[in-house]
Amino acid sequence: MEYQYPIDADWSTDEVIDVIQYFQKVEEAYNKGVDRDLFLDAYRRFKEIVPGKAQERRICDEFEEVSGFSSYRTVNAVKAAESGTKIKIKLS
Fold first, then answer.
1. HAMAP family this protein is in (predicted)?
2. When comparing pLDDT for 1 and 9, which is higher?
3. Does the predicted model carry a pTM greater than 0.85?
């Protein structure tokens, strides 16, 4: 993709990598589908790095603005799905 992922200058290199991996899972959900359980693992790690709702919303909104992919819609679909399923999100 031809855009930059939203990152925080205070994050460590490992945290930046983990946040980027989370956003790649969001992309994957739109492009080819993502395993629910692997997505939730990435989301849990993302929430360890970005625990606050306001910061999460800001970062995810920035990502959606540049990519067109909604982290919010993806998380909701994944949480509603059963374990072991593959989630595919359609662009609106």
1. UPF0223
2. 9
3. yes
